[in-house]
Specification:
This protein is α/β, with parallel strands linked by helices. Helix content is 41%, strand content 9%. α2 crosses α4 and α3 runs parallel beside α4. The longest helix is centred in the N-terminal third of the chain and has 26 residues. The structure holds thiamine diphosphate and magnesium ion (MG).
Length: 348
């Protein structure tokens, strides 16, 4: 490691970028909170939340080349998807399943984030299936660069494929298969495990017999890194280092971000049956957004007035996204018979 690499990459982020990271986390949180309220009002049918995990997601997104690198997200990656370029209006249109909804024309559940334009790859609800797909994608990146078939517009552009999943999903065979492939072929891949301590009701110590998911990296011959998932800059640093390894042809990295989900698993879960209120309150005190706000204020990057202004603007953006989605037409019933991702003929 060079002396330069010992300096945290995040220490080189300019104030504008730091504020943009903060804004993205906050916007995701306000959108997320509104979705819960809409669900409880009976206006939408389902929501699954990123609350508590914004640092892990936004820190990772800002460490890659957003829109250039490939991302295979999982259902909890609301904040990550917003950071990549999915908009609050897109999300609201999904929640209301309105005509023209961005991810599937309103045909599948919300939280299946995808955009060809943003290199955000749509996944299945079946957990961990995105991991071998990401390994395949990373293999293609490497193969195309080696054989000169890389992006004809920019053949020298380095790329990495990032995927995310929860710690519970690492019990699935697909995860092991994908990670092994990434190790064997030294693929430009990053697997970010967001360890939020539960897989629905199952606590992590019933899920695995090792202390850290990252400990398993040794079995794949790749580095495994544990990071404080509620510290956005620590996550940024860990992912940035993995990106640089991937771009330099040094292969894949497994990163485990230790975090906590502040909400029940989904709008249809009651977490009182498997975790105490004291535990949840403890983690609310470690809220990654509050923590980053305090950091920015201490550094003189964000004043209390600016923080309030950010909050007002985030709420206003969520208000207008909600209003636009409510006013949008429902799909025609016969649209349900069409293809999910693209029109059957001549689609984009
Ligand atoms: C193969 C498979 N088994 C079970 C489910 C049902 N399921 C959906 S989410 C989930 C929990 C996953 O927990 P974790 O990987 O820790 O992610 P988290 O939801 O905590 O972010 C389960 C069991 C599924 N979607 N796919
Ligand atoms: Mg989990």
């Amino acid at each position: 490691m060079t002396t330069d690499a010992l300096v945290r990459a995040s220490s080189r982020l300019d104030e504008q970028t730091l504020l943009s990271i903060y804004w993205t986390m906050l916007l995701s949180r306000r959108l997320d909170e509104r979705a819960w309220a809409l669900h409880r009002q009976g206006k939408i049918h389902f929501h699954i939340s990123a609350m508590g995990q914004e640092a892990a997601q936004v820190g990772a997104a800002f460490a890659i080349q957003r829109g250039v690198d490939y991302v295979n997200p999982y259902y909890r990656d609301l904040a990550l998807s917003i950071a990549i370029g999915i908009t609050p209006l897109d999300i609201m249109m999904s929640l209301y399943a309105k005509q023209g909804e961005y991810s599937s024309g309103g045909r599948q559940m919300p939280a299946h984030f995808n955009s060809r334009r943003l290199n955000l790859v749509g996944g299945s609800s079946v957990v961990a299936t995105q991991v071998p797909q990401t390994a395949g994608l990373a293999f293609a990146i490497k193969y195309r660069q080696k054989t000169g078939l890389a992006d004809p517009a920019d053949p020298t552009q380095p790329r990495v494929a990032l995927t995310c999943l929860g710690e519970g999903s690492t019990s699935q065979g697909e995860w092991h298969e994908g990670m092994n492939w990434a190790g064997v072929h030294r693929l430009p891949m990053i697997c970010l495990v967001q360890n939020n301590a539960y897989a629905i009701s199952v606590p992590v110590d019933s899920q695995m017999a090792v202390a850290n998911v990252a400990d398993r990296a040794a079995g794949y011959g790749i580095p495994g890194v544990v990071v404080d998932g509620n510290d956005v800059l620590a996550v940024y640093d860990a992912v940035r280092e993995a990106v640089e390894r991937a771009y330099a042809g040094e292969g894949a990295t497994l990163i485990e971000a230790k975090t906590y989900r502040l909400t029940p698993h989904s709008s249809d879960d009651d977490d009182r049956s498997y975790r105490t209120r004291e535990e949840v309150e403890l983690w609310k005190g470690r809220d990654p957004i509050l923590r980053f706000r305090q950091h920015l204020q201490a550094e003189g990057v964000l004043s209390p007035e600016q923080a309030e202004d950010c909050d007002r603007r985030a709420r206003a953006e969520v208000d207008s996204a909600q209003a636009a989605a409510e006013a949008a037409p429902d799909p025609e019933p016969e649209e349900a018979l069409g293809a999910v991702y693209a029109p059957a003929e001549g689609g984009s």
